[in-house]
Amino acid sequence: MSLIKNTIVLLLLTMLTISCDNDNDTRIMKIRINHHYITGVGIAPLLVYEVQEDNAIGSDTWTAFYTDIQGFNYVPGKIYDLTVKVSTIDNPPADGSSLRYNLVRIDNEQFVSPETQFDIELKRNGESYVTNTSGYSILNQIMLDCNVQCADLDFKLQNQDVVIGTFKRIGVSEIELVSLR
After folding, report:
1. How many Å apart are CA 1 and CA 150, to the nearest integer?
2. How many structural domains comprise the chain?
3. 142 vs 13, higher pLDDT
4. End-to-end distance of the chain based on CA atoms, in angstroms?
5. Has residue 141 been placed in a domain?
6. Dihedral, CA atoms, 173, 174, 180, 181, nearest 10 degrees?
7. For FRET with 117, which of 37, 53, 90, 164 sits at 20 to 30 Å CA-CA?
8. pLDDT in tens, 37-66
9. 104-143 confidence digits (pLDDT tens)
């Protein structure tokens, strides 16, 4: 009987050790998420977070972030400072990230003035992110008020390879075009 108990304990300890080995593939990091989405291209055009990570937080350097953060509910118009747990995905999908991000905590969230201006690429390498099925929008997700610049927006989208708009926020899912380049 004692031999069976010892074998079971040894087996359980081995399984525990093996299951803890995956902890080597996790780390905790800080992320700052900007107050607006930006456009990006994966398999298809999409809206992505603009972020700063770890030592880049507080700098002028922002990068596109294509992965969701589990447990985080983003609301445009706020800058978020987050602590996240990053873990490696063993067999990631061909079109997906090899990393999984889980929210540990929201360290800070700060509302941004609706008058704060920001840039979003509206067209890159011939790929337009602007749709006009029932009013102008970015990828049918963010309503775009082009005000008196709609004709200029249409012209630039048809005749330029790259179009960048400067915007200010009207609401959570609506922005106003301030200028184009």
Report:
1. 83
2. 2
3. 142
4. 80
5. yes
6. 0
7. 53
8. 999 998 889 999 999 999 999 999 999 999
9. 999 999 999 999 999 999 999 989 999 998 899 999 999 9
pLDDT score, position 12: 43
150 and 169 share a domain?
yes
Residue 48 lies in a domain: yes
Q: Look up the pTM and report it.
A: 0.82
Other beta carbons within 10 angstroms of residue 15's beta carbon come to: 10
Boundary residue ending a domain (93, 111, 129): 111
Q: At 18, is the secondary structure helix, strand, or coil?
A: helix
Using DSSP's 3-state secondary structure scheme, residue 60 falls into coil
Q: Which residues constitute the domain of residue 55?
A: 25-111
CA distances to 49, 50, 108, 181 from 176, rounded to whole Å, are 19, 19, 27, 15
Any domain includes 15: no
And the tokens for 67? 């992965």
Give me 174's structure tokens. 């609506």
Q: Which of 20, 31, 94 is nearest to 68 (CA)?
A: 31
Helix, strand, or coil (residue 23): helix
